[in-house]
Amino acid sequence: MKIKSVVRRAVFIGAIASTMLVVSCKSKKALIQNTVSEPLKAMKASSIIDKHYENQTDFAAVYIKSNVRFDNGKQTQNVTAEIRIQKDQKILVSIRFLGITMAKALITPTKVSYYEKIKGTYFEGDFSGLSQWLGTDLDYNKVQNMLMGEALDDLRVGKYNQTLEEQSYRLDDKANNSTQKAFFIDASNFKIRKQEVIQSDKARKIEMDYGNYQNFDKRIIPLQLHINATQEKGKTEIDLEYTDLNFSDELSFPYSVPNGYKRILIN
Length: 267
Hints:
Elements: H1 3-12, E1 29-31, H2 45-54, E2 61-71, E3 76-86, E4 90-97, E5 100-107, E6 112-116, E7 121-125, H3 128-134, H4 140-148, E8 160-165, E9 168-173, E10 179-186, E11 192-199, E12 204-216, E13 219-231, E14 234-248, E15 262-263
Parallel strand pairs: 7-15
Antiparallel strand pairs: 1-12, 2-3, 2-14, 3-4, 4-5, 5-6, 6-7, 8-9, 9-10, 10-11, 11-12, 12-13, 13-14
């Protein structure tokens, strides 16, 4: 079982986890039901988007703990991940296997850095490697939004066709290009239930499904995330289950590459 490749992918995706530094105000969790008692009524796309951003998660810093399951069709691996996010500034991810820290990654708006212990290697570069592996163009904001259950794109600057699908409002990007994007917004809380990006010319598709919404001090967060990335070279699935989540004003971000590690390049 190639733990190294699993660690690399888990770190790269921001595969998370967290037990947080003690927060001044402990979070109180309340289950948010994902059901709607009455039939959905059609709404303008602009109204749906407005309601979505009214419920956008506002925070300064957050610390999460998560169980992670990785499956690429050839191997399956379960790890624990911890993530710290200083909103719009940096994301620190720690991957643990059998209680041992196997890798760390530091993600900023301009750079992706990580190191892993098995072969003593480290990487520093931009988002192109992560984008290529996941099958969609990513940047810092999209990674942060993905982990927090927010829309990858800023929906307020696009134009969308709106349809009803089960208990969700589906918004399809009207942009006429080779990339098709769809956002499924839960009708009960106007949070993201699912989002997908398809690049037909590159045979790429990525789907992100969210579930188990809970309320943390008036912040509605989905505690389950299923990522399904498909491209010509194969299919990868990653399941994240947040087991603990707390908010704070500021966190520490300890990251330094150990001495003697060898720098690598990712094609």
